[in-house]
TrEMBL record:
Matches recorded under PANTHER family: RRNA METHYLASE (PTHR43191:SF12), RRNA METHYLTRANSFERASE 3 (PTHR43191)
Full protein name: tRNA G18 (Ribose-2'-O)-methylase SpoU
Methyltransferase in keyword set: yes
Source superkingdom: Bacteria
A single GO BP: methylation
Molecular function per GO: RNA binding; RNA methyltransferase activity
Annotated tRNA/rRNA methyltransferase SpoU type domain residues: 123-261
InterPro entries (alphabetical): Alpha/beta_knot_MTases (IPR029028), Ribosomal_eL30-like_sf (IPR029064), rRNA_Methyltransferase (IPR051259), SpoU_MeTrfase (IPR001537), tRNA_m1G_MTases_N (IPR029026)
Keyword annotations: Methyltransferase, Transferase
């Protein structure tokens, strides 16, 4: 049975999990060290629970307890449920809860790269991506368009940061993912052809039939401002571009990923 706790002091140490969530740099450092992440909104929390994530504490407006959060509270067992008025929660978190519910959860143990991609045929690699909105959007497209795994390099935004989880609509819990280094030779050793999504004079069109025919293909996407490094591009089997009109040179990386996932999906 969950323990309903009315917030009396927002500086109480047990509330540190939820404090000042808008301080992005602070959270990106603290969450991995604490072994926690924050899921926001009923749908996202339900997906996290469904996919095996362990809840540690809930934070919600008082009116949600007997409303849309009731089924979540029942599923979470004996954990603290901190509650108060909207203004109190905003003072605690640093922003107004648009969905009214937050859940602190234990971070899952991530698999080794080799185990994650052993049976996969289409995977995505995110290198140095710093915008949590883009990372979340890419996970959502990956889930919708049957990308079987996502790998993120050390300089990439944490897929489990609060905004990434929210933008992904919880699909970050559905698409298998893990961390990898910047050496992509491991992909080649696992039988993958690698395709760098980048602007280059030598790039082939994403419509090239050889790409779609590859049995195992890894699609690599780079940082928002500068794209993939030249060393990674040089190490890939293909450099791939999406044909553009009206003198537009490129798409936002999240939009480009959706186009690439659709075009190069496994057919049949």
């Amino acid at each position: 049975m969950a323990r309903i706790i009315e917030i009396q002091d927002i500086a109480a140490p047990e509330l540190a999990l939820f404090a000042h969530l808008t301080e992005v740099q602070l959270r990106s450092r603290l969450e991995p060290e604490k072994g926690i992440f924050i899921a926001e909104s009923p749908k996202v929390i339900q997906l996290a629970l469904k996919n095996g994530c362990k809840p540690l504490a809930l934070l919600m407006e008082r009116k949600r307890i007997k409303g849309q959060a009731n089924c979540i509270i029942e599923r979470c067992g004996d954990i603290p449920v901190y509650t108060g008025d909207r203004e109190v929660l905003a003072d605690l978190t640093g922003y107004r809860l648009t969905r009214g519910i937050l859940c602190a959860m234990a971070r899952p143990v991530l698999p080794a790269v080799e185990n994650l991609i052993m049976q996969a045929r289409r995977i995505a690699v995110l290198d140095g991506m710093t915008d949590s909105t883009n990372v979340g959007a890419i996970f959502r497209s990956a889930a919708a368009l049957n990308i079987e795994a996502v790998l993120v390099t050390p300089s990439c935004c944490d897929p489990l940061c609060r905004r990434s989880v929210r933008v992904s609509m919880g699909t970050v819990f559905q698409v298998p993912w893990t961390h990898m280094g910047t050496d992509i030779s491991i992909l080649h050793s696992m039988g993958f052809k690698t395709a760098a999504m980048a602007l280059s004079m030598n790039a082939v069109s994403i419509e090239d039939k050889k790409l779609a025919a590859e049995k195992k293909l890894a699609l690599l996407f780079g940082t928002e401002g500068y794209g993939l490094s030249q060393s990674i591009i040089d190490a890939c089997d293909y450099t791939v571009k999406i044909p553009m009109s009206h003198q537009v040179d490129s798409l936002n990386v999240a939009a480009a990923s959706a186009v690439a996932f659709w075009q190069l999906r496994i057919r049949g």
